[in-house]
Design brief:
The protein is of the alpha+beta class and 271 residues long. It folds into two domains: 107 residues, Aminopeptidase; 142 residues, Gcn5-related N-acetyltransferase (GNAT) (Aminopeptidase, 3-Layer(aba) Sandwich), CATH 3.40.630.30. The protein has seven helices and eleven strands. An eleven-stranded mixed β-sheet has the order 1-2-3-4-11-5-10-9-8-7-6, with helices on both faces. Strand 3, helix 2 and strand 4 form a beta-alpha-beta unit. Helix 4 runs antiparallel to helix 5. The N and C termini lie far apart (52 Å).
Length: 271
């Protein structure tokens, strides 16, 4: 990690750093195999809780279809679905159309938001009676999942299994933050650290509906920025939804363009 961050005003150098240190990184979550080639970086899950994604590509009109076909062939051979995210600077410009023609489904668009850690270290302002718990243990994972299930009204056991599995093989990868009030979790989030990077990832910020609008999301961002600062990271990034983007913009985050997410799934065999 460098001693000083490139200012966010220099957007292209910061983008290049992010692309090199996050998208092109060969560091794994301990549950996935990472293959780095001149044309792509591919994550392949080893088991139930690993992650499968094409994290980065360097292709153009002459070879994009060939690389797409190679990735589909790889994941088809191991029977796994995988993600392919297209960032603003990715080429060719019709990559999304090419993925669609290859059988991918567009599942949503988000925004890459990046901030300098030093801009996020204002004192946390928590509602009365709320405190933060920070740890990486089983109990906090359970509380984090409890919030997620209440917010999204769906079974989040797979996320819980993934986080537990990551902790068992890469104990320094994640730290979890849960906001507690009256002995129950009311908001939760996590921060993810990969080695040899200046960028920490902020993930999973969720707040119970009755606790929204009280500054918990912003306070969790500031708290996690302090964790990142303590580890020597210069930046934090968020793959932001439409709901979180306005809050992040008010917290000195800058947009680095849209991310279009595509998914490919292997054909299901009828029994």
């Amino acid at each position: 990690m460098s001693d000083s961050a490139v200012p966010l005003g220099d957007s292209r150098p910061v983008w290049d750093l992010y692309s090199e240190q996050v998208r092109r990184s060969s560091a794994s979550d301990g549950l996935s195999d990472v293959v780095v080639s001149p044309q792509f970086v591919r994550w392949s899950a080893r088991g139930e809780y690993g992650w499968s994604e094409i994290a980065w590509t360097d292709v153009d009109e002459t070879n994009a279809d060939q690389v797409i076909t190679e990735q589909v062939s790889h994941f088809s051979s191991i029977g796994r679905s995988f993600m392919w995210r297209i960032y603003e600077h990715d080429l060719p410009r019709d990559l999304g159309t090419r993925l669609h023609n290859a059988g991918f489904t567009h599942i949503g668009t988000s925004e890459l938001m990046i901030a300098e850690v030093g801009d996020l270290l204002a004192p946390e302002e928590l509602p009365e009676g709320v405190s933060f718990l920070q740890a990486d243990d089983e109990q906090l994972i359970r509380r984090l999942i409890e919030v997620h299930e209440s917010v999204f009204r769906s079974d989040q056991s797979k996320l819980g299994g993934m986080l537990r599995a990551q902790q068992s093989v890469a104990s320094t990868l994640n730290e979890f933050v849960v906001a507690m009030a009256d002995g129950r979790p009311v908001a939760s989030s996590r921060v993810q650290f990969f080695p040899d990077s200046e960028f920490a990832g902020l993930w999973g910020g969720s707040t119970l509906p009755e606790w929204r609008g009280r500054g918990l999301y912003s306070a969790m961002v500031a708290h996690r920025a302090r964790i990142a600062a303590a580890r020597g990271y210069n930046y934090v990034y968020v793959v932001a939804s439409d709901e979180s983007r306005p809050i992040l913009e008010g917290l000195s985050f800058r947009s680095f363009g849209p991310i279009s997410s595509f998914e490919w799934q292997p054909a299901r065999t009828l029994q």
